[in-house]
Design brief:
This protein has 2 helices and 6 strands. By secondary structure, the protein is α+β, with helices and mostly antiparallel strands.
Length: about 80
């Protein structure tokens, strides 16, 4: 039997985990910005570290480090693929 993957938002992924993007759940300018930054379907995102107050959190995607606020990272859905 295969392992069941749990769909969650990027903000729920823990530090050090790798996250496989499945969907950006918003329309308009913010979606375009996230897609342009590399948060496209089937991209792998590494959760790097949180700021001292916990928001924003930095992520590595497409070879670049990007900081996203909680409101933005909660719009990106997918699954954790490794720690």
């Amino acid at each position: 039997m295969g392992e069941t993957k749990i769909v969650q938002n990027l903000h729920q992924a823990a530090l050090g985990e790798h996250f496989l993007v499945k969907k950006v759940a918003i329309q308009g300018e913010l979606k375009r910005r996230l897609l342009d930054l590399g948060f496209v379907q089937d991209s792998v995102v590494e959760v790097l570290k949180a700021s001292p107050l916990g928001d924003p959190i930095s992520y590595r995607v497409a070879g670049t480090v990007i900081a996203l606020r909680k409101e933005e990272s909660q719009l990106i859905y997918g699954e954790v693929i490794s720690s």
